[in-house]
Amino acid sequence: MEGMEDINLKTNGSDTFSKFTLANMVSLPSSLTEPTTRSTAQAQLNAESPMGKYTERMVEDILTEIFKERRGDFPETSSSCHAANIPWPIKEREPHVDKRLRYWKEVLHQRKLMQERVQRETGKLASEVLFNRRSTLDNRDGQMVKRVLDYADRMKGERLMSAPLSKLGDQLDPCTCQVVPGLQATTPKAEKVGYKDLEIVGMPEVCKTEILGKEAMEQDPPPGWLQSEFLDKRLEQNFVDIQNVVEFFPDVDALQVKGTALSKINRLPKPFLVDVDSMHTVTKSESSPICTEECICESCGETEEKSSGTPPPIPDVGLRVNGVDYVPCEGDGGGIKDCYEIVARFTCDPFQRRLKHVLQLTNIGTQSLSFSWKQSTYYYNRGSLLLAQDNEFHFDLEGFRLSHGETRNVAVLYQPRKVAMAVELWLLQVEPRIFCGRQESLLLRLYGRCTPPADYMAKLLECQCVCICKSDAVEMDKLTTHLGALAPMVVPPPTCCPYERPLDDREAFNALNPGYICARFDDLEVLRAFHQRLKKPREPLWDMRLSTIKDYIMRINGLVERESIFSEFNQLLAPLLGGGFSLNASSQQDVQKQRSRFIYVRGVICNGIAEWEDLMFNVEDSFFKPELQRYYQSLLGESEEGDEEEPDQPKPMTPIDMEKLMEILGETELDEKKIRTAVIRKLYRSKYFRDALYIQTYSHLCNMSEDIVSVIESTEIVPT
């Protein structure tokens, strides 16, 4: 007996555990409509576990195989004669399915099995386990009614007047020998104020349908406390007290807002008239005079003229913005995809006002439209750039509604207080939705520019001129004060050479002594010997300057000796004196230099053009071969069309493909010239080919420009 009791306790415990755990795991409504009873679920739980059956079946299969092997009974293989004639079922290949879809399908299957198990264990549908009327809707409504009745009972006038005051007794403090008054109980706020603004909480029918499901809402509600006669009698008895607490009890179901889809309000196709002068119906029957009449409709033209004068039908949803009509029903997608944007520009001086009408909205539909303003960022990457901070743009930002035929004008007031630029972006949202773009609203861009006044600019320019003139006068005084102390420094112009090379003694002498030209080395040796005679033993060698020899002559003390040596020095310099530089030679040299420069630049340009032609030919050849192979593959039906997408690498051609290609070319009568022309046309329209040409041409032009500049700079100064 004790063992049986233990088994029953374990069974009941597992039953209770499975009910609550499985009920909490359900997340999707079940589609089963055949509920089982609790006796059936209990019988299934008391039955033998499937694991035991599986173990017994496995043991039986092993023993059967052992006995067959001992008797000599071997299983037939695929090589048997009669087994080969058996039609083996061909397994269908599973189509390619995304892993996420396959995983979601498995999850739904597992949840469905779990729902079936919950239904077997508890005898309830999955939707009745988590979301039922008694625990969600009826409980909420019942608590709301109880709250109303409680406040109605507490806020009675007789009860408020006769409410007892709860207070603790007075105590004597032994330390100070003083009487401490007792604490009074805190009165609730409703009784203390004598008024309670009760809030009604409820759920409309749309929310109830979403929670319980459409099938559960169509069923009759089960009888409960809210539908009892006792509650009705109590409400009638306390009706006067309830009115003191709740002035008006709203109909929660009537507060719901039901929208109408744009697809349901699309207008039907308009009938059109056929241009027919007259329509004749002639019958040959002579039995009745009615059938022998000729039905001639000569008034078709008049009907067409009358129909053209009738006013167009009024759409359900429509808006006119600045004279342009927008009817979302006329589009295929149910809305207007184009972004409607209005830009308003203002320009004025500080503390001036500019008023401009920017919008005129007219409701041309039968439904009422609701409008609301919302501010957005003007620049998406810099939200605070040039943002108006001082209420520069002022207009009515309150939401509004427009019925059929009503019009509203929106005017913006620009009132800057300092010289700056300010921008703002406002979104006008419309309900029901008309603009179906990314913003789903109408964009209003405000751009304000506050310029300084003309008088202020003139005064500022005058102050700048005074400051600049004063600073210039100070600098001029400093320069003229020390002008006498400045010594003129005459420096000969440097001779630039396009290449580096060591100069010989004659070139160094000519460069260091302007006006003298030494053409022979013997003259330099004579001057070097003359310098050696005049210098002292410890003095440095001659530096190729005639001024050094003159200094040595001037330091001789004897007048006669100095004059004789100076006359000898002049005799040595007489053949070295050169004539003045002719102007004709300089002009001829400039012309020759310019011609040389033109020749060099022309050569650089010609070489660059030739290189560019070779470069373009190589680029075209590199693009032509893959494009030709793609063209062949397109003939074979293996490539997809589309120039905007990135081209894939062409696949290699197999011998079978080449045979098919030759057959196709023979059928279509395409020769090599036509194929080359078609491929080149497609190649010239390719975006990637054009981008490659542009990039290579730009790089080559930059290199040519650098070469031309280098040639001009190198031929600017020619050494003399």
Short description:
By secondary structure, the chain is an alpha+beta fold. It has helices spanning 2-25, 38-46, 50-71, 81-84, 99-122, 126-130, 134-154, 157-161, 189-193, 205-212, 214-218, 229-237, 239-245, 300-308, 454-481, 505-512, 521-534, 546-554, 559-573, 583-636, 655-668, 672-684, 687-714; strands at 171-173, 178-180, 319-321, 324-326, 341-348, 354-363, 369-376, 393-394, 400-402, 407-414, 421-431, 442-450. Pfam families: MYCBPAP.
How do the helices and strands line up, and which of them pair or pack?
Layout: H1 2-25, H2 38-46, H3 50-71, H4 81-84, H5 99-122, H6 126-130, H7 134-154, H8 157-161, E1 171-173, E2 178-180, H9 189-193, H10 205-212, H11 214-218, H12 229-237, H13 239-245, H14 300-308, E3 319-321, E4 324-326, E5 341-348, E6 354-363, E7 369-376, E8 393-394, E9 400-402, E10 407-414, E11 421-431, E12 442-450, H15 454-481, H16 505-512, H17 521-534, H18 546-554, H19 559-573, H20 583-636, H21 655-668, H22 672-684, H23 687-714
Parallel strand pairs: 5-12
Antiparallel strand pairs: 1-2, 3-4, 3-6, 6-10, 7-9, 7-11, 8-10, 11-12
Helix pairs in contact: 1-5, 7-13, 20-22, 20-23
InterPro entries: MYCBPAP
Protein name: AT21895p
Oligomeric form: single chain
Unreliable runs: 1-48, 268-307, 638-647
The chain-level structural class is alpha+beta
Average pLDDT across residues? 74
Taken from the alpha-carbon principal axes, the silhouette is elongated
Q: How many DSSP E strands?
A: 12
Describe the largest sheet: 5 strands, antiparallel
Radius of gyration: 54 Å
In order across it, which strands form the biggest sheet? 4-3-6-10-8
Total tally of structural domains: 5
Kindly state the percentage of residues in helix: 40-55%
**DSSP strand (E) fraction?**
5-15%
- N→C terminal distance: 133 Å
Number of helices: 23
